[in-house]
């Protein structure tokens, strides 16, 4: 079997420097923003050490433009981006497909995704593991998948849960607790 060639590009957005890697079959990796091009490149190459900087295809350029729009706060849909998830477990691919159906400004939970896949909420931990290992965060919107009770949960990208919250805020999702139903009597 021939080894897949991966190319990558580091680019700037309103959120910082992102990285994208691709093969002939589609996008293979996406690196969420960091403060420097060097840090982004280092993180991307940690996952794809044999990748080479390359000239992006029209499809990659389209995805880069969509990412830039996203970090400017424009509603963006990545569901049509062609991905190369070769080497991913079949169950994880199913989880990723379900996560891709969670649109802009909407959220779900690990348990709800598991239930949607017909495996029941007890598989929520598996969904969480898939999200943590998501090779193309943002394009597969793992930031829209929350812990039970709508809590933010973990996020393995640079900045952790704060980055997840900022991304959701870009989409208009308010994670603050609701205001109290009854006001204080003031005494």
From TrEMBL:
<keyword id="KW-0234">DNA repair</keyword>
<dbReference type="GO" id="GO:0003908">
    <property type="term" value="F:methylated-DNA-[protein]-cysteine S-methyltransferase activity"/>
</dbReference>
<dbReference type="InterPro" id="IPR036217">
    <property type="entry name" value="MethylDNA_cys_MeTrfase_DNAb"/>
</dbReference>
<dbReference type="GO" id="GO:0032259">
    <property type="term" value="P:methylation"/>
</dbReference>
<dbReference type="InterPro" id="IPR001497">
    <property type="entry name" value="MethylDNA_cys_MeTrfase_AS"/>
</dbReference>
<feature type="domain" description="Methylated-DNA-[protein]-cysteine S-methyltransferase DNA binding">
    <location>
        <begin position="91"/>
        <end position="173"/>
    </location>
</feature>
<dbReference type="InterPro" id="IPR014048">
    <property type="entry name" value="MethylDNA_cys_MeTrfase_DNA-bd"/>
</dbReference>
<dbReference type="InterPro" id="IPR036388">
    <property type="entry name" value="WH-like_DNA-bd_sf"/>
</dbReference>
<keyword id="KW-0489">Methyltransferase</keyword>
<dbReference type="Pfam" id="PF01035">
    <property type="entry name" value="DNA_binding_1"/>
</dbReference>
<keyword id="KW-0808">Transferase</keyword>
<protein>
    <submittedName>
        <fullName>Methylated-DNA--[protein]-cysteine S-methyltransferase</fullName>
        <ecNumber>2.1.1.63</ecNumber>
    </submittedName>
</protein>
<dbReference type="InterPro" id="IPR036631">
    <property type="entry name" value="MGMT_N_sf"/>
</dbReference>
<keyword id="KW-0227">DNA damage</keyword>
């Amino acid at each position: 079997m021939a080894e897949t060639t991966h190319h990558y590009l580091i680019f700037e957005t309103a959120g910082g420097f992102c990285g994208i890697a691709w093969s002939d079959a589609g996008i293979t990796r996406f690196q969420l923003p960091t403060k420097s091009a060097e840090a982004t490149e280092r993180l991307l190459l940690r996952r794809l050490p044999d990748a080479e900087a390359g000239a992006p295809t029209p499809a990659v350029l389209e995805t880069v433009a969509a990412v830039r729009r996203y970090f400017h706060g424009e509603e963006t849909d990545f569901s049509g981006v062609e991905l190369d998830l070769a080497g991913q477990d079949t169950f994880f691919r199913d989880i990723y497909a379900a996560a891709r159906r969670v649109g802009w400004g909407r959220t779900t939970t690990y348990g709800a995704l598991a239930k949607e896949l017909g495996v029941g909420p007890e598989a929520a931990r598996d969904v969480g593991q898939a999200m943590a290992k998501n090779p193309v965060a943002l394009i597969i919107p793992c930031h829209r998948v929350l812990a039970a009770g709508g809590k933010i949960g973990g996020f393995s990208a640079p900045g952790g849960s704060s980055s997840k919250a900022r991304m959701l805020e870009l989409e208009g999702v308010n994670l603050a607790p609701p205001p109290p139903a009854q006001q204080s009597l003031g005494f």
